[in-house]
Amino acid sequence: MTIILEDSSLNHHQKHLYNFYTNIDFRDIYKYVLTFLEDIDFRDNYKYVLTFLEDIDFRDNYKYVLTFLEDIDFRDNYKYVLTFLEDIDFRDNYKYVLTFLEDIDFRDNYKYVLTFLEDIDFRDNYKYVLTFLEDIDFRDIYKYVLTFLEDIDFRDNYKYVLTFLEDIDFRDNYKYVITFLEDIDFRDIYKYVLTFLEDIDFRDIYKYVLTFLEDIDFRDIYKYVLTFLEDIDFRDIYKYVLTFLEDIDFRDNYKYVLTFLEDIDFRDNYNYVLTFLEDIDFRDNYKYVLTFLEDIDFRDNYKYVLTFLEDIDFRDNYKYVLTFLEDIDFRDNYKYVLTFLEDIDFRDIYKYVLTFLEDIDFRDNYKYVLTFLEDIDFRDNYKYVITFLEDIDFRDIYKYVLTFLEDIDFRDIYKYVLTFLEDIDFRDIYKYVLTFLEDIDFRDIYKYVLTFLEDIDFRDNYKYVLTFLEDIDFRDNYNYVLTFLEDIDFRDNYKYVLTFLEDIDFWDNYKYVLTFLEDIDFRDNYKYVLTFLEDIEFRDNYKYVLTFLEDIDFRDNYKYVLTFLEDIDFRDNYKYVLTFLEDIDFRDNYKYVLTFLEDIDFRDIYKYVLTFLEDIDFRDNYKYVLTFLEDIDFRDIYKYVLTFLEDIDFRDIYKYVLTFLEDIDFRDIYKYVLTLLEDIDFRDIYKYVLTFLEDIDFRDNYKYVLTFLEDIDFRDIYKYVLTFLEDIDFRDNYKYVLTFLEDIDFRDIYKYAHKVLEHFDLKTH
Question: Which InterPro entries match (predicted)?
């Protein structure tokens, strides 16, 4: 049946054209097109199409295409395109498209596409693309794209895409993409992307992406991406990404990313990322990342990251990160991270990290870190951290940490650490630290700490530790240390400290402690130690020291103390002890020593002193005591002893001495006193006793001896003197008394006896 269109708005030719399309059943007629294509050898005859294009000035005539589109109501007529696609077996006929592409030298003819784009004002005409998308049910049409991809061997035909990119000067022509984005309201158009993703089974389609990447040499193609980034002002274009994210409900659509990751074997395909990084000189191109961060207001947009984390069950998906790490040989590829750090001025970039921390409520979001730690078996995966440390020369990389610390005002940033600690229940998280320590052989890894210390000039950088202590109110925050100690069974875990000491040659590394002490003015900083002691109730927490002593066999580990003493020249370093004593008012702080003594049952603890004495050969090590006495002017130091005696009520404290004497069998211990006397030449050492007596005004201080005698019942204590006399063979040891008498001039010393006798009630004592 023929329908005659009489609409007066159409001219004569338009009416006939419309009636032709409306009344023919394209199912019958398309075959003539195919017959034409089959019968002519298109290799010879395509040139007529080219001749047509060359001879007409397309600048004038493209308008006929537009007129056609304007005059037909595409809402009714797009179906002819569909009918054509449905009725021809595209498996047989796509070849005509390929023949056309093979036979024409696209280097000359792509210009017609450009001419079309240049001459039409795309601002007005892009709507035809939209009309097409709105009117067709994409659920039906996408299959033709798939058929095309399935039937052509993309290994041979991708070259047409490359030829196009090589021949056009993308610097001039990328603008058409931008024009499209500027003129359409992306809020309406993104839905077509979603429809496509919903209707196709991505499990089948992703392979085409892989085929493309396998067959092209990415070394040639990435340059087009760079050209695009160089020529566009990303300040304008990034907004389209944001619009897309705002308008789609990412809660529903993130699944397409997951589907892709599940279906591709990432073991084979991660190399495309590496190829890209190898071929571009990241020194020039990292700036695009920075531009993006500068231009978007991250305060509003970080939420998309959070939405993604909330909606995916990270328990299932973290595995993709692990797969990546397992399959790439990080020994070769970590360099990309280094290149990035070398080329960017971290002084500018760190602010983005800060903005992120400021704007997210970390109280809600730290859980993602915990989820990751819970779900991965860290026993298997910590190795990636170690691989990184082994392969990079930390001598070069630590500087980035320093730059970060120099440029940020740590006074502002430390709060994020505190927020994290406040919100997580450290009882749950510390286990990850333990797992790490159990699984790695610390004998290999500690070297990275040493390298860091060697390469940084700690004289400049210790200040960051101090800044942290100044800005946080340690009174509130020390409890995190205590929580850690309470929750871990230190009996099992102290071994990590020992392993560290065994594996490092402390002879070389103690210097870092000295450098720290030299560079900080301890007069200002000792207060942090005091604050800690004041705020924790030491009555509850001293037990951690005891646990440590009980669990380690001090017979093996005391050597670390000796090594330290041997290697440092105590002549220079004892001053740190003095500085501490000078700056703190011992009247207030000695109480910590007393608290310790009151709360511990000295019956248990003294054994550690004995173990130490048994295991060290005091013949070699007493010299450290002498060095101390030689180098300090005892005229200054004795006052600390007096201050201690003045402020404590010796009536309470002497009991600790008695407890010690009761619990040890002096038959074994006196030998240490003898060893000392044998090895030192008392001719030199007695002077310290004299100096003490000269400098203190015994008129005021003898009372401490009296207090001791008054408070102890000599009926109990004399036995210790007897035990001493019984156990030593006085035939050998009386000489020490004689040596003392020979070397001192009794003319000077007897006066002290007089002072005691003047204040002493001889009848009573």
Answer: LRR_dom_sf (IPR032675)
C-alpha 147/C-alpha 132 separation (Å) is 20
702, 755 Cβ separation under 8 angstroms: yes
Residue 102 lies inside a defined structural domain of this protein: yes
pLDDT tens string 269-323: 777 777 777 777 777 777 777 777 777 777 777 777 777 777 777 777 778 877 7
Identify the pLDDT of residue 28.
64
Q: Longest C-alpha distance within the chain, in Å? A: 147
Q: How far is 400 from 628, CA to CA, in rounded Å?
A: 42
Give me the pLDDT at residue 160, please: 77
pLDDT score of 616 more than 70: yes
Q: What percent of the chain has pLDDT over 90?
A: 0
pLDDT of residue 72: 65
Domain assignment present for residue 103? The answer is yes
Residue 250 domain-assigned?
A: no
> Which position has the token pair 């792509």?
110
How far is 376 from 319, CA to CA, in rounded Å? 8
Q: What is the mean pLDDT of residues 743-755?
A: 67
Q: Does residue 197 form part of some domain?
A: yes
- Point out the domain boundary residue: 190, 208, 230: 230
* CA–CA distance, 552 with 150 (Å, rounded to integer): 70
- Indicate the length of the chain as a whole number: 765
Alpha-carbon 63 to chain mean position: 59
Which amino acid is present at 453?
L
Alpha helices in 216-366 (DSSP H): 218-231, 234-247, 250-253, 255-263, 266-269, 271-279, 282-285, 287-295, 298-301, 303-311, 314-317, 319-327, 330-333, 335-343, 346-359, 362-365
Contact (Cβ atoms closer than 8 angstroms) between residue 160 and residue 106:
yes
Q: Give the pLDDT confidence of 572-610 residue by residue, as tens digits.
A: 778 787 777 777 777 777 778 777 777 777 667 777 877
Read off the pLDDT of residues 135-191 as tens digits, 9 standing for 90 and up: 777 666 677 777 777 777 766 777 777 777 777 776 677 777 777 777 777 667 777
Backbone angles phi, psi at 611, to 5 degrees: -55, -40
C-beta separation of 424 from 366 below 8 A: yes
Say what angle helices 175-183 and 234-247 make with each other, to 10 degrees.
50
Of 230, 261, 285, which residue is a domain's last?
Answer: 230
Domain total of the chain: 2
Q: Among 703, 717, 583, 715, which residue's Cα sits nearest to residue 649?
A: 703
Provide the pLDDT for residue 272: 78
